[in-house]
Design goal:
Structural class: mainly alpha
Number of domains: 1
Largest sheet: none
Number of strands: 0
Strand content: under 5%
Oligomer: single chain
Order of helices and strands: HHHH
Shape: flat
Number of helices: 4
Distance between the termini: 27 Å
Length: 98
């Protein structure tokens, strides 16, 4: 999945004439985390009145923002030469043995 997401990032890079480098990807991650926080506030009914939407729409927005964060993390891994699948297996999935 990481390589598929990275290929989409390369299309984005060309379309918008943006270099997806270390600085860009970290700042983009921060932007996406902010959008995720906004989606959580909206879902929990803690956003400004003009941003209120149905629970169903808010849950969908939350899902999309989570996907954006995960996608950007995958691109970040690529920018830094990290195989995230391997890293997750080493860091997280080792607990399956416990």
């Amino acid at each position: 999945m990481q390589s598929d997401v990275v290929s989409i990032a390369r299309i984005y890079e060309k379309k918008y004439s943006i270099k997806v480098d270390e600085e860009f990807i970290l700042l983009k991650l921060m932007e996406e985390v902010g959008e995720l926080a906004e989606a959580v506030l909206t879902l929990n009914g803690k956003s400004r009145p003009e941003k209120k939407i149905s629970k169903k729409e808010a849950k969908k927005k939350l899902a999309h923002e989570l996907a954006d964060v995960v996608g950007i993390v995958m691109v970040c891994g690529d920018v830094y030469g990290v195989d995230l699948e391997k890293a997750i297996k080493e860091k997280w999935l080792k607990w399956k043995k416990v």
